[in-house]
Amino acid sequence: MKKNLYIIIIVIIFGNFFVPQYSFAFQKTKLDIIPQNDFVVEPGKTEVLLNPGESMVKNITITNRINKKVKFKLSTEDFVGTNDPKQPVVLLGDNHSPYSLKDFIIPEINEFTLELGEKIVIPVTISVPLNAEPRGFYGALIVSNDPDLQEETDGTEVQNKTRIISRIGSLFLLKINGEGKYEGKIESFKTIGPEQSVFTKRPEGFEIAFKNTGNVHLVPYGTISIKNIFGRVVNTLPVDAYFVLPDSTRYREIKWSDGFSLGRYTAHLSLNKGYGDTFEGIDFVFWILPWKIMLIGFISILLLIALLYYFLTRFELRKKE
What we know:
This protein is mainly beta and 321 residues long. The chain is built from 2 helices and 19 strands.
């Protein structure tokens, strides 16, 4: 009897070292939400700063807003930046990028199911090897639904229906401490739309193209100040911080609110490049000439001149005696 008791105690003490752990730290909660036929992944982007050989745990949250029980799967992919203004980031699937992070993003679980309104918080470990270079590494945790294992509200499996797989990525931007290559420059600064310098009404806003020529993602930010022909600042527009991946160009649109403007203007972009305290400035000169209003004003002046001429040629002014 004592022998069996000793065996049980030994198994309990040492079992944790040899038996896989099944007590997970993920958490599920139930929310009262309206079905919207989608699911939400938060956060969309996570920045991590590590030393070589270190690791860190971050949480992601998935909320099911589909009106049925859904099975989800987690996978990892690398992503890179582009020079396309319509597609700033591209996922690489099974391929590895020069800045690969996909093999070092490890979620606590890879599959789970959620009912309508259920939210799950999953710890994700991000780690880097001891020989990691001081630069950027980029990967995404992809959350996808499994149409084959979705269930109708009555519990029966979906059959003879089109498979629609939704994929949402949570991006991880890792920076290794050290002397990385921080380089970037403004490629262009102009108004939104086709290049032009004369407008009939206030432009919709401004477009910034910033190119990252280094090996670490940058986070530029700044302001656009707009001056009239007399040099007075009439508007100041903030350029909120945004990330630009290595070897890519990121385009950013800054809206300018509606309003009446007339004459010559100068827009000055002052942009912090996203490293140190390095700023770059560039000017863009343009004219706003609303021809319809100007035409009405011109016609009004002509009519006034014609009316004055009529009175001067038809009536004689005499001094009263």
